[in-house]
């Protein structure tokens, strides 16, 4: 009950924060002088392509870019009607991408699931690799298992992502016939999901997942190991041993749960940081995720597109922190968020 | 011993009820905390070796110019992509001290690679304490004495040369100057902020926590990319790459703290409910003291591990933004810059030595890791 | 016209033809198709079939298919002469009246006839529609402020007429990115308010989630972007993929107008598969044999790895073509730089000459191009009739002594304690050169130039920026100097418009503001105020007014001489080899050729539709 | 008859240090109880842990054999593999740890942790396990087993946690139960109940038991065999009867002499003066909110204290005794401002006789610091109240450090002196808290509380883990300080003999209420309330010839509804505290 109440309260806070963030996002996007269309207009005019100019002028009015900034913001969110009536984010209208000349929803929709897919794969990879290895490294600290996993982890961390990708692609192709880049074999593109298609996607995901995931995995592993080592001496571990639990089971049930606290706190950051971390990787690996889209959108000041992507990432972040706050309470019953009289 | 008839066992060594109070060893009691930690640390061999290694690394930083046979941007256009050369001792069975064989480069227009032909008939002994290009020793004294240089008519590319004919070995040495220093500033900034805000939020909870958390959330959901874009246009154009990078790494640090702060906060929210924290509070300990003496030590392992983990990111991070013109770029030399140059297939397949800078990064990071591990162990009460 | 050879049906469309969905080949091609001359150019006739794989790095690059396909009203042949292509022929009356004649029976890729009505639709309903083109028809049609009169005497004839000559007209039609002065009227009419049923149109607008019919029309009408698979085309391949994809397929155009001497309809290759790949991976994928024809995204430095792949049993060969840009790496001192003192210095021709003289081009050549490029100033290439050794060598041979004395003469003889010269106002002479941090060659070359310039007391500070940021900074005059390629067109002919060597384009980074001034008719930028620049302006205008090739050649020669003498841009090297990966079974790809955007349209001028896969496989 | 467990020449040491257990040998017969008694820090716990090989990483079994003749034949516990050891632990041999508060995982519900044993060794289903566990909970005296099952350790009182631990060790019905001071935190009635349960189990299943205890009364009531340890060595061992009746070894004799008892003759003391009160609790109640079982269930309210009124005159000792879980600790914590009372309650503290009282429950920062210098607490759970990463030196000097008293070396010297005063060796100052025995930690806690020389000391079961001789020493110390410095104690204990010795007034609590309050002599010789009577009856005496009837005593006073009409109370109807005679108050209807 208390948790439910807290979750509801936390959700309210999230909405409020989201509103603040949206204003800031809008401000930041509009910080550089000019906007996409006026830049475009001057460029088009300069290169004598007057056809484009007209189109741009016309869009300017249509998207209220000629109004004062605060009005633009309110229209974008959907608080006040724009030239075509209410059509803002809260009404489900994500706006128009000038660069791609298509509705934002259309552009983003395509790369969104890819982004989520690649990042989920990476997150999964992180957990599947880092959790057992971290536990193992702690349980067998100062043995070759510990040293090897640390070495491999740091190898992944110390190699620039792109170089790592290149090496993996090159040798993966040479010796294991792994595909270079792309997300699936061409024959599956546009086909409905099938087992073969899934297999193809999985094979294509190997290298990107590895590249995006290694740093996360190494980080998680090492920190988990450190936290676990701290817990291993605690009396409750002895109690568990005295019950006759097997070490792996005991480790996972008791110390791991204790050691998990800092990671739960960071859940909120997991997806967003992977998304922003994978921007560069995606750019170099040619993955059609949302990262590269965001980069171009920002560079060309394609404001509705950039705004939407940023709001999406912000939403993920905020939801993440919210979930992590609620999870923290569930994880550790002692945690209360009340203040203390200082 | 005695066994009484009723089956009792009785010990019969003389019994002195007051024997347990021994004299105390003063010198051990006087030892300050760091000495105790150091004593424990000393026994952690890997950590100790790593620590000494790192210390040495930092100590030679001012003198890399002396050790390196070439200066950082010295080009020899006759030896592009020269492979690593080995220093020989025996020529045709005779010992003649350290020497190298001269090589000549030929362009192979079929493979588009440089072919290096070694002339194994004329050994050329290395020169020591010799004159080369001048460099500032310890950043101050301009000198041109090098520990060793290539003999006339030959080169000494211990780890090969790069596309412009620069010595990889020397550049790695010079690169250490930046890679081992500036990047770490970011870590420090982010740690100070992260631990500071995180512990305040976690320990006090309530309103302060709420406010700090909102700040964290907002900071985190705000895009960094536009910031970099704006910055890249705004940085004055005549700033040197190092100055730009310095600012960037500080900003990186300023933006990086929320993650750590959240972790610290979460842990402290839990730790503050521990009985010993209550006890300290009931003794009248100030909040700062509780955080410093009771909460932080219990989170030290995580912090140490996190710090170690940030190091490679910071060393490499220096180039991550270079696609926006904000990273460290030539003529500054750092390991990241060198690796950035090596990011192509040819470097992997044909000139693998251009990717050598990965090695020092890994070695340094592992050293920091073992050092951290040793430190962790010496702070761990259970490992005695 | 010679008699048509007996035509052969393509197996690719055979099913459709048999089903009756498609007319037989004889009815698909124009009554007088373009019969290509293969033997005359040393090519072999081929067979139809196969899929050609190639890669680009951004999804908007699928427009390369329009470039490579190179079906133009008139196009350049391999000798850079303009020949009719889509057109049956054309006539020019003193460059004032152009009569364009279409091929009777020519059809769009959807089978609708391609007639003068398509030109008329463009001229009346698009170029002169206030909503679709508020600024009126495109600028290349404007001669001395006057628009042509365009008439459509019959189905296959279109006439453009001016009072003054428009020598640039035909060449414009042959550009890599041509102005499409015709549109598939039968298709677009459905979306034009003048012709469509307003209720239906409103529904379409609603469907497409755009806000007006004009937006919808604009969205659909993308002859160059090539991203609308419903839009009929005249190119050899038609876009068969809709939506945003990683791989795009282009299938043969059943109505394409070219046939080979054996009566085989071109293109030979059935399908072109274009994959969007990160720029950094193109070399790796080529090395892995995943490209059948690839030059885009490959660089000189990739040659060694490509050659290695070949040696390791790859299925491709690597040809080395020449690059047609006037300079691989050129430094543009900004004559419109916002800092007054610096601007004065940069405008001093002695300074620019000295900077050029101090550069050790041979070392750069060796380090970056295996000595295979040609060191020299920014000048046209030998393939151009205006090439002279003198221009190439002007102020471009290493001579630090002369450079030093030139700088001394220019009043920069004071030096700071570190040996760096001081500007008249006492600031050190630190030239900040901004680059688009994408090419490593640039960085390496600047590294060498840094050392070279240090010898003459000039400090070079390199600053890599994002490409867009760099451009904006240059255009705004806040960049002191920038690095870019030399002129795109390093092989101008007399008929080539000299716009790009005159201060008429901001894209020439030495004079962004003068360029803007011209491009915006004075709305932005500033007028040229250096005598040489003004002279260039005059000459460019003279060229437009000139009526004979001789006059134009003379003008070109003079303009190039001014450039050579004034060193507006400091060139370094030209004609660097461009690797071209070609599948071993692919035929008719020239081993030696120029890799040029304009004129040339990259592969376009080499008529990619004539390339074919040898059924006997690789040699 | 073969013993179940046979320990021969067991020697255990830590790191490079000297042996802490030396050549210990004993046998445990099936169905019998072996009591391990001895001085605090003498190696009892280490020996027990050695049997199950649950020793700290740095400890080594240096020599000796531990043979178990159990269900699976004869095994040498020092030699078998870790894998086989796992089957022994928790199944054949289970253990109750000395410090139950630390030994339970703070993040898992009690029920989960207890039933786990059944899942592990008996393959019981979750429901089955829960049933068995609830049954055991009932037997160890949880008033509300369901609530305990769903509680986290921090939501339970010290005694409750200990009972959970006991239940955990007993659910699997082991062959051998090693109980390391299993009843230290329990009030005497509950203790009787638990001990009774153990006996019963022994009878039913033939379970053998190693019982570590400092309470000679318990030994007398439970053990067949006794082993007396001192400084790691066995001083005397043998059957209980002769050993208790006629201890042979001087240490054993000394130990028995030190045992406190409720004095035989009352000498009625006058009621305490009520004029100079150092601490006053007025109508203090505390309600805890326990999270509902799931997100959808409402929270459960727990009334830990209900309208507690207590007055502590300066220089006197007010003792609180009572049932485990009756709110003693809660009241103490409220008294020191560690927790706010429910609205309406008041806690007043007077630093000096003539100063104005400060309201502890609403102090500002400066007042709080001043107050904390005056009032200190000895925590019920010393292990938890010491930071695991702070050396003892740091922990002891911390109060001085906080209040800026003395120089570094002065502080250190004082710490060494205090340590000596509580009977420990100052060379232990550089150790971490985990490297101590339970009794030693308790003494550390006392030493720390005395560092500041406060005016008020709240002691929450300060001597529960101490053997009688050390306890004697500590009590003497406390008395001496009280007399010297006019210190006042709020003293919580379940050991009535200790209370009888040190207290000036005793309050008896049950279910959050003070049910009777009087000077000790009055209380012990003229108890009015049925609960008080039961308590006194349940106090075990170290006389093997006068065993108490555990069954009878365990029923205690029973539930309040079974009491005589006058004393009966329910959740809603609570009689008020009546003054029967001067200084003697009883909660009853008149
Ligand atoms: N980890 C450790 N490192 C060093 N010494 C230790 C450690 N643990 C316990 N000791 C020491 O071993 C001795 C025996 O401890 P043990 O816990 O067995 O005592 P005990 O008999 O159980 O005492 P108590 O009745 O106080 O619980 C004590 O002197 C203690 O200080
Ligand atoms: N944080 C808490 N949350 C919920 N319930 C609590 C909490 N702390 C204590 N309680 C409950 O309050 C009641 C009184 O607990 P308290 O610790 O005061 O008992 P006690 O008299 O000290 O018992 P013992 O002698 O066993 O230590 C118990 O029922 C306990 O479960
Ligand atoms: Mg013990
Ligand atoms: Mg208690
Ligand atoms: Ni394919």
From TrEMBL, chain A:
Residues annotated as transmembrane: 7-29, 112-139, 151-171, 201-221, 259-285, 305-331
Keywords of this entry: Cell membrane, Membrane, Transmembrane, Transmembrane helix, Transport
GO cellular component, one term: plasma membrane
Protein's name according to its UniProt entry: Peptide/nickel transport system permease protein
GO biological process: transmembrane transport
Family: Belongs to the binding-protein-dependent transport system permease family.
Residue ranges occupied by any ABC transmembrane type-1 domain in the UniProt entry: 112-328
InterPro entries assigned to the protein according to its UniProt record, in alphabetical order: BPD_transp_1_N, MetI-like, MetI-like_sf
Location of the protein in the cell: Cell membrane
Coiled coil: none
SUPFAM superfamilies in the cross-refs: MetI-like
Pfam families for this protein: BPD_transp_1 (PF00528), BPD_transp_1_N (PF19300)
Highest taxon listed in the record's lineage: Bacteria
Bilayer topology annotation: Multi-pass membrane protein
UniProtKB/TrEMBL annotation, chain B:
Keyword Transport among record annotations: yes
Compartment annotation: Cell membrane
Protein name as annotated: Peptide/nickel transport system permease protein
Entries under PROSITE patterns matching the protein: ABC_TM1 (PS50928)
Keyword Transport: yes
Species for this entry: Sedimentitalea nanhaiensis
Major location category of this protein: membrane
Domain of life: Bacteria
A Pfam family assignment: OppC_N
Protein family according to the UniProt entry: Belongs to the binding-protein-dependent transport system permease family.
Transmembrane stretches, start-end: 46-68, 180-206, 242-260, 303-330, 350-371
GO CC aspect terms: plasma membrane
PANTHER family per UniProt: OLIGOPEPTIDE ABC TRANSPORTER, PERMEASE PROTEIN (PTHR43839:SF3), OPPC IN A BINDING PROTEIN-DEPENDENT TRANSPORT SYSTEM (PTHR43839)
Record's keyword terms, sorted: Membrane, Transmembrane, Transmembrane helix, Transport
InterPro entries: MetI-like, MetI-like_sf, OppC_N
Domain ABC transmembrane type-1: 176-372
GO biological process entries: transmembrane transport
Membrane topology: Multi-pass membrane protein
From TrEMBL, chain D:
GO molecular function: ATP binding; ATP hydrolysis activity
Domain ABC transporter, residue spans: 5-256, 279-536
Pfam family, any one: ABC_tran
GO cellular component: plasma membrane
GO BP of this protein: peptide transport; transmembrane transport
Recorded topology in the membrane: Peripheral membrane protein
Keyword terms, alphabetized: ATP-binding, Cell inner membrane, Cell membrane, Membrane, Nucleotide-binding, Translocase, Transport
Coiled-coil residue spans: none
Top-rank taxon: Bacteria
Keyword Oxidoreductase: no
InterPro entries reported for this sequence: AAA+_ATPase, ABC_Ni/Peptide_Import, ABC_transporter-like_ATP-bd, ABC_transporter-like_CS, Oligopep_ABC_C, P-loop_NTPase
Matching SUPFAM superfamilies: P-loop containing nucleoside triphosphate hydrolases
Subcellular compartments: Cell inner membrane
Listed NCBIfam families: PRK11308.1
Family to which the UniProt record says this protein belongs: Belongs to the ABC transporter superfamily.
Protein name stated in the entry: Peptide/nickel transport system ATP-binding protein
Source organism of the structure: Sedimentitalea nanhaiensis
